[in-house]
Amino acid sequence: MTARPPGRSAGERPRWRDVDGIVLLDKPTGLGSTPALQRVRRLLRAAKAGHAGTLDPMATGMLPLCFGQATKACGQLLGSGKAYRARVALGAATDTGDADGTVIRSTPVPILERTVLEQTLATLVGSRDQVPPMYSALKHAGRPLYEMARRGEEIARAARRITIHRIELRDFDAVSVQFDVVCSKGTYIRVLGEELAAALGTAGHLSALRRLWVEPFEDRAMVTLEAVEAWVADHPGEAERPDWLLPVDAAFAMLPRIDLDARSSLHLRQGRELPAPTSLASGEMARAYDRASRFLGLVTGGSEGRIRVERLFVPGAAGEDAETA
C-alpha cells in the first residue's frame, strides 16, 4: 500500500512544492515506469517530475526519477549507457518477447554447453542495427507501437544503431541462460534475448530482466519504493532532505568543475558569454558553480578562452528575474 503524505486526508489533492533532485528508484516488478514515477512524485509532492529510460512492468532495477530542475537532465540520462542482468527462457517465443506475452511458437532446445554459450554471446558484442519490437513505447503517427501490436497491427520499423559493449555469461541450465550486458541507449534486451536464442538454434523470450545501473550512476545505491514511503511517513516536515535524493549535478559528475565569482555567476544566469576562469577546450563541457558552491548549470568552452551557457539548472536564465550578486 502506498503511504499517504503526512497532513493529507484521503481524496485531498497534494500540495505540490518545488523539489530538485534525482531518485534512483529500484523499480519493483509489475509496476510501469510512469506509475512508479507518479507514486514517488506524490510522496514527495514534487511539482515537476520525469523519468529517464522506460522499464517494462516485468523488469526491475534502476529507474532514474528526475524532479524540478533535474528534469532538464532527463535527456542526458536517456542517452547514457546502461547495464542489465537478463534471463532468457529457451524453447518458446512470445508475442511480446518477454514472459508477459503469449507463446506463439515452441521449438526444441539443444544441449547447452558453457563454451558454446560463451562463444555465441561473444558474437553479439559490437555495433550493429537492431529493429525495435512492436511491443515498445516508440510511436508511429502519434500512437505507441504497443497499442497497435495489441490490435494485431504490424508496422515497419526503421532499424536503429546500437552497441553491445560487453556481455558475460552468468549461469545456465537445460532451458535458460542468464547473462549481464552493458549496452548503448536504445538497445532492446528482449530483442537481444531473441537473437541469442536464434543463434543457439531455438526460440526464446526474456523471463527476467533487471537494470543494474544507468550511466553515470554505476556505483550509486538504489532506493526501494517502500524505503521512500517509510522516510516520508517518518519526516512530515519539508526542511529535511533524504540522502537518496541526489543533487541535480550528480547527473554530470563526470564533467570538470568551474567556480565563478559573484559577478560572473550573475552574468552566466543572464545568458552572457564569460571569460573562462580556467582552461577549457573549445567545445568541452563543464559544470559551473557560484561562490556558495551552488550548481548553476552546464557551460561549453568557446573561442578565445570564453565560455557560454549550455543549460542553466537554476532560476534566472535570460528573460527571467535573476538574483543580484
In brief:
19% of the residues lie in helices and 31% in strands.
Write out key terms for the chains shown:
325 residues; alpha+beta; Pseudouridine synthase; Archaeosine Trna-guanine Transglycosylase, Chain: A, domain 4; 3 domains; nine-stranded mixed β-sheet; five-stranded mixed β-sheet
- What name goes with the CATH superfamily of the largest domain? Pseudouridine synthase
Overall shape: it is: globular
Residue share in β-strands: 25-35%
Q: What is the CATH top level name of the largest domain?
A: Alpha Beta
Q: What proportion of the residues is helical, as a percent range?
A: 10-25%
**Quaternary structure:** single chain
Quickly give the structural class.
Answer: alpha+beta
Overall pLDDT metric: 88
Largest sheet: 9 strands, mixed
Unreliable runs, pLDDT <50, ≥5 residues? 1-7, 317-325
> What is the count of β-strands?
18
Question: What is the count of structural domains?
Answer: 3
Task: Report on this structure.
By secondary structure, this protein is α+β, with helices and mostly antiparallel strands. Helices cover 19% and strands 31% of the residues. The radius of gyration is 23 Å and the shape is globular. The protein starts with 20 loop residues before the first strand and ends in a 13-residue tail after the last strand.
